[in-house]
Amino acid sequence: MKKKILSIIMMLVIALTGTVSAYAGEAPADAGDGEKAGPQRDTNNVHIVARRTSATSANVSIDILFSCVVDSYNVVVYLQKKVDGEWVLDTTNPEYVFYNNGYRKDEFLFGHVYTNLKEGVNYRIWCVSKDTVGSLTYNNSFYSSQF
After folding, report:
1. What is the pLDDT of residues 45-83, one digit of tens each?
2. Close Cβ partners of 90 (under 8 Å, ≥ 6 residues apart)
3. Which one of 22, 46, 74, 116 counts the least CB within 10 Å of its CB?
4. Cα–Cα dist 41/57, whole Å
């Protein structure tokens, strides 16, 4: 029940604040006999909401919906800043990376308020997701819009 309420709240936040949505699907490999090696599944359905709450802070929410219960997942969330037209990790911010691991889940939720942002600097979130089902591993990268 708590998970369902949290998901509903997350979807409302996403609907009301604007989102960057990403979808990635991957067909299974050929088993060698012309048959596909297992059913096709959607790798991830990702919603990232990132917005400034002040000149030096931002609120970020990430919701990754796996299309099935995955055996394990690893999600890394990076804070990037734009320097001379290029996106680089903001290693000057102590909160520039978060590592998240889990087992036997169909959803990953992340929320964080980033502080110590520099006024006038553009930022974005880079989310790297790796999930495993059986012997199949799926890797994806997703980006928020700049904030």
Report:
1. 889 999 999 999 999 999 988 888 999 999 999 999 999
2. 79, 80, 81, 96, 123
3. 116
4. 37
* Alpha-carbon gap, residue 28 to 136, rounded angstroms: 9
Q: Which residues contact 112 (CB under 8 A, 6 or more apart)?
A: 59, 60, 77, 95, 98
- Residue 147's contacts (CB-CB under 8 Å, 6 or more residues apart) are 50, 51, 52, 58, 122, 123, 124
Is 138's pLDDT higher than 80?
yes
What span, in angstroms and rounded, lies between the C-alpha atoms of 121 and 55?
A: 9
Q: In Å, how far are 35, 37, 50, 119 from 28, measured between CA atoms?
A: 10, 6, 32, 45
The whole-model pTM stands at 0.69
With beta carbons less than 8 A apart as the criterion, state whether 106 and 63 touch. Answer: no
- What b-and-e string marks burial along 37-76, b requiring 16 or more CB atoms within 10 Å of the CB? eeeebebbbbbbbbeeeeeeebbbbbbbebbeebeebbbe
Q: Is 129 helix (H, G, I), strand (E, B) or coil?
A: strand
